[in-house]
Design a protein that fits this description.
This protein is an alpha+beta fold. Helix 7 crosses helix 18, helix 11 runs antiparallel to helix 16 and helix 16 packs antiparallel against helix 17.
């Protein structure tokens, strides 16, 4: 028997949501108890919402019953954002409508559209959406925007925060606002003027504090999805722009995103890639400023352990197996609007790197089959770790970011921490242009001693990232549950207080995805783990 408030919630939605879309049976609630992260929370109720009216009704009922809710699209989030032990609202494939705007200059997308499908719709216009997460062929727009996902090529200039132009939003009280529509904005101003005024006041106060404002600007010069998008408070004065940009990266803790309108970016038709092999990590990192200056689209760093994890796979270059232990690779992609522009870009890169030692000649390929073989090295890293994991363990992928000038020493220190805590099999790779590193390791969450080992390791990683390098604890995967206890450590008391104020302004009852992004429980990341 469900507790009273859940009974009240079910009664309130019974006339508004088809009963075949409401699940309370143990089999289906168990099935929805996991996402792509290493957490497990079994929802008491799962509701499949197919329309805006249904979402609004569900949120009103949750508000009336004082019942927490969590939103879920594809469930590809890696940090525990899409699991709940309360009410889980699933907005999946039925939310798949889109609208091309301005001959491809923009696109309006419902949250159930898969990111790769959005790019397919835009391809005839020579455009694409800015965010390009590795999971783009599975991740849906709802999660991409809610996590401010980025990827290998979009950096900090083409993520959702930088390319969003409007949102259609359902607030926790069921109110709908479309920021692209003047009449809707006016109506929202009448009903929620206090919220908009509070956001404007918060932004003015933040900008009036030069040290705090500068810290926020500096923190977002590298990839950062730790906490809320505080840069909205210093980048904008219009309360609706602040509203829109705070919702990007808010992980379902402030409102439901019913549609996202993006300004699109060019998809250049001509591409070439090179797998550059350097004698060590320090040399590879010395190449990064030159590559940035040359305007490359991507530069993926892979340490020797990462290369070793895939070197024996079919189709991999044979020379990978002969590389010395300190070797490090950069997989570089450059693009051009024409073949001539592409060739000029390749020459500029080769000239820029001419003074750096490499273990193999710098060679580019624009042949699709060869090009794809190179990128299969990078794409195969995460699956390769999973394929050899010990029975009973799960694969953990974390992502951090460091100031690019200190990336080499940070990478070496991260490797030393992994080895010191018994994660010698871990691999390190990432988006070097942005100082963004992923580290992947296997972990047993079924034994208390192993959980304690994980705790000690993560404590030391967080201290190193924040106190030594002033980096980002979450670069592009979203804060989720596993980094929520460390948000205050990264940002400090003033900035953390801003985040608490934002949450209170949008969600005064604290019902939207509680425990995610902000969590006062210092051990929250060690609870509800998914033992295998």
């Amino acid at each position: 028997m469900l507790p009273d408030r859940y009974q009240r919630f079910l009664k309130d939605i019974s006339a508004l949501v088809p009963q075949e879309h409401v699940f309370t049976d143990p089999l289906r609630t168990l099935a929805y108890g996991t996402d792509a992260s290493f957490y497990r929370l079994i929802p008491k109720i799962v509701v499949r919402a197919d329309t805006e009216a249904e979402v609004a009704a569900i949120l009103k009922a949750a508000d009336h019953a004082d019942t927490p809710v969590t939103f879920r699209a594809a469930g590809t989030s890696l940090s525990g954002q899409a699991v709940s032990d309360s009410v889980l609202i699933v907005a999946g494939s039925s939310w798949n409508r889109y609208e091309i705007i301005d001959n491809g200059g923009g696109i309006r997308l419902q949250p159930g559209v898969i990111g790769g499908h959005a790019n397919r719709y835009l391809a005839p216009h020579g455009r694409k959406i800015g965010p390009d997460p590795a999971s783009i062929n599975a991740a849906m727009i709802g999660g991409i925007a809610a996590n401010n996902a980025s990827g290998m090529c979009c950096g900090t200039s083409q993520n959702s925060y930088r390319t969003v132009s409007a949102l259609r939003v359902i607030m926790g009280d069921g109110t709908l606002v479309d920021t692209a529509d003047a009449a809707s904005r006016a109506s929202f101003r009448r009903s929620h003027g206090k919220l908009l005024d509070e956001l404007a006041d918060l932004a003015r106060t933040t900008r009036a504090n030069p040290d705090l404002a500068e810290r926020i600007r500096r923190k977002f010069k590298i990839k950062n999805t730790t906490g809320y998008s505080l840069n909205a408070l210093v980048d904008f004065e219009d309360p609706f722009e602040i509203f829109v940009h705070l919702l990007i990266g808010s992980e379902g803790t402030l409102a439901f995103l019913a549609s996202v309108t993006y300004d699109t970016v060019p998809e250049h038709p001509h591409k070439a890639s090179s797998l550059m092999i350097f004698p060590d990590i320090a040399t590879a990192c010395r190449a990064i400023p030159a590559l940035r200056e040359a305007g490359v689209a991507a530069a993926e760093l892979m340490d020797r352990a990462a290369l070793r994890s895939v070197e024996a796979k079919p189709g991999m270059p044979e020379y990978l197996q002969t590389l010395p232990a300190p070797a490090c690779a950069l997989l570089v992609e450059t693009r051009g609007a024409t073949r001539e522009a592409l060739q000029a870009g390749i020459q500029a890169i080769q000239q820029a790197l001419a003074g750096l030692p490499t273990l193999r000649p710098l060679e580019f390929t624009a042949v699709p089959a060869a090009f794809n073989r190179l990128w299969n090295i990078r794409k195969g890293l995460f699956p390769a770790v999973g394929a050899v994991r010990r029975t009973g363990t799960t694969v953990v992928i974390e992502d951090v970011a460091f100031p690019v000038p200190r990336l080499a020493e940070a990478t070496l220190e991260l490797r030393a921490l992994l080895n010191a805590h018994g994660y010698a099999e871990a691999i390190i790779f990432g988006h070097a242009l942005e100082g963004n590193l992923h580290f992947v390791f296997t972990q047993d969450f079924g034994r208390s001693a192993e959980v304690e080992r994980y705790r000690r390791f993560m404590d030391e990683v967080c201290d190193m990232v924040v106190k030594t390098y002033d980096g980002s604890l979450k670069a592009e995967h979203g804060t989720g549950r596993n980094m929520a206890p460390f948000v205050a450590l990264e940002w400090g008391p003033e900035a953390y207080a801003l985040m608490q104020a934002i949450k209170a302004i949008f969600d005064p009852q604290g019902l939207l995805n509680p425990g995610v992004i902000l969590n006062a429980d210092a051990q929250a990341h060690l609870k509800n783990l998914k033992p295998l």
